Amino acid sequence: MPQDHALSDTVSVTIIISLVVILIIITAALLFGNLNLQQKSAYVLSEMNNKTITNTNMFLYYHKAGDDVFLNSSSPGLHEMAFYVDNRTSTKRARPVPGLNTVTAGTLLYIYYNATQDVYRISSTMGPAELSDADTAEDCPLRIRIVDESARISLGTWNWSCEVKPVILTGPAPTVGYTNPASGYRGFPIVRGFNGTNFLDGATAMLNRTGGIPPEIPADSCTVLNATWMDCIFTLPPSALAPTSQRYNLVVTNPDGKQGMRANYFYVYTAAPYIYSGGSTPASGIQGATITITNLRGNYYQPTASVVYWQGTGTTIPLGSVTVRNMTSLTGTLAIPATAPSGYYNITVTNGDGRSYTRANQFRVRSNAPTVTGITNRTGYLGSLIIGNITGTNFVNGATARFNSTTLGDIASTSCIFVSNTSLKCTFDPAGKPVSASNGYNVVVKNPDGKEGMRASYFTLSARVPTVSGITNRSGYRGWLVIENVTGSNFLPGATVRFNHSTLPDISPVTPCTYVSETRLSCVFDMATRDPTPTYTYNVVVKNPDDVGGREGMRASYFWIQSPGPTISSSTNRSGGQGTTVAISRLAGNYFQPDTEVTYWRGAETLTFTPLSRPDRTTITGTLTVPATATIGYYNITVRNPYDGKTATLRNGFRVYALPPPAVSGISPSTGDRGVGVDPVIVSWTGFKSGASVRLYNGSTMVYSTTTHPSLTDTQISTSFNVPETVIKGTMNLRVYNPD
């Protein structure tokens, strides 16, 4: 029977077309994402709990077994796992810390909250950096969801009500690898990190020996950083443990009680302490001081080490408040008694196990007596206060100072200001003290406790030697005072000045000199009885007072006395009338002496001159009486100095003239009653002379006369009338008669 090929062909074509359509759909889905091919979820075996580390609540996830998972969506892998933290109002996805991508079996994860960024983080370690970043999650209750993001399937949910519960993790037994160094010294705390496997959070460590002899040494604390590394702190006891030739086992115990051990691995050494030469800082101290030993360098110091500083058999100074910073350095406080002998001390360190070491002559106790190194003014002068800044050591507030000499005595300070323990500012008054040779005095400082320090032969007390540089008048005139301003240096109050010559008497001031400054004196000298000398005969000598040394200074050949003959240049007034007294307001000339005699003369006739003053050597004043009978004409003027008889004459220096007759110009009042006094009566006239009389005439007969005049001037007479009643009434003539 023939076969039906048409049906077979139709079926074949249909199958081919269906396959093409399916291929197109699959390709489109792959290109445009419309096809969802569901994969299987990750297989994980895990534990979830919470724990408090350094007062911070966090969540622990232990990936006990199963598939590897990835925490970053960008990481290649089959399974992306996410942790979501839900509270009442929101959901946050925990973020892995940088570098954490793959989670394998045996991994312990820490999930903690960071309040600053308001995020949850995931870390496989919980070291210092993570702890400083972690904050307590307190927005309770919380739910932790573990999601396979690749398969979009929940892998588990854990609810937390904020109640802290103990976490007991379990897993394979740990193994112990290595630590470096694998040794420590007894009596010292040590920090050791070691590796291994299967370390669980909360694992502990210890050092032990087989059979428990000697006793076990448990770690003070351990921090599990991850499943392969942990850090522990051990305090190795100071008591004798195993011999140094034997070792200890290093044992790690997980919270589930499973242990791992590295047998006969860790050495515990025994060593005596040691002090380095020059190891004490500071290396000296003063009696009575409490100092801090900032570093005693050495090795193998135990935390319970004690230290003593000692000298001989009787002096021991314990180091207080000992702090062992590490096995090579310790600090403490050294209270040095004021009575401790000075000198070098040994230092002994004793560890808690009784082993000790002594380093000889490592610390010096210095005397607290003051020392003197210097003074700013090493020379002082009598008559001046001495202010010195004294330097040294160990000065105490209240210290005093003095200049001292076994032969000259002491010069005590009048005041001392405490500046610091190395500086005093003191004032000394050397008045009346003996001068010394160069550096003849010691400088001594004494503290209030009586201890003294001295710089020997370090101060000189001297007397100032004045110098004379000049005087205002380098010559004086015989008979006259000389006012001098003496200039120079080192003059002291009470200094004297004199003009001195080896063959002539000294000329001293008439009164003590006035002290102006240490460079100037003002003095007055009297040359009345001094003889003239050649040019610059006298020396000018200045002497300071005896109580400040009495030293003298001299300017040699610097002063002389002159006595030239007088001269006359004019007379004021230059003329006068007969019968008058003329005021000579100035007889001018030069080189007059205080008692110079003056004569106005003409031939044998002289006029009487009465001197009034001789203010200086160029002027004489006085009055000249010209008699009414004096000869009219010119008179000569002669002066004569009394000390040497030298004279000078001004020819025709004064003229005497005749006065005109008097003339009456009026009278007031011009009337009066007989027998009644009239006072005053003023008669106006010219040419009146002293002694003139006023008369009344009736015709040629004088009826009344008066010569008593209360007042007489060149132009008026003031007098009084009392005409007798016997005089006939009528107009009278008035006449005035001069004495001539």
Q: What can you see in these coordinates?
A:
- Helices cover 5% and strands 53% of the residues.
- It is elongated, with a radius of gyration of 65 Å.
- It folds into 7 domains: 117 residues; 95 residues, Macroglobulin (MG2) domain (Immunoglobulin-like); 93 residues, Sandwich (Immunoglobulin-like); 92 residues, Sandwich (Immunoglobulin-like), CATH 2.60.40; 96 residues, Immunoglobulins (Immunoglobulin-like); 91 residues, Immunoglobulin-like (Sandwich); 75 residues, Immunoglobulin-like, CATH 2.60.40.
- It is mainly beta and 740 residues long.
- The strands form 12 sheets. Strands 21-23-26-25-24-27-28-22 form an 8-stranded mixed sheet, with no helix packed on it. The chain has an 8-stranded mixed sheet with strand order 29-31-34-33-32-35-36-30, with no helix packed on it.
- Give the low-confidence spans: 1-7, 32-39
The overall pLDDT, averaged over residues, is 87
Rg (CA only): 65 Å
In whole angstroms, how far apart are the ends?
221 Å
Largest sheet, spatial ordering of strands: 21-23-26-25-24-27-28-22
Contiguous helical run count: 2
Strand content: over 45%
Determine the fraction of residues in helical runs and give it as a percent range: under 10%
The major β-sheet equals: 8 strands, mixed
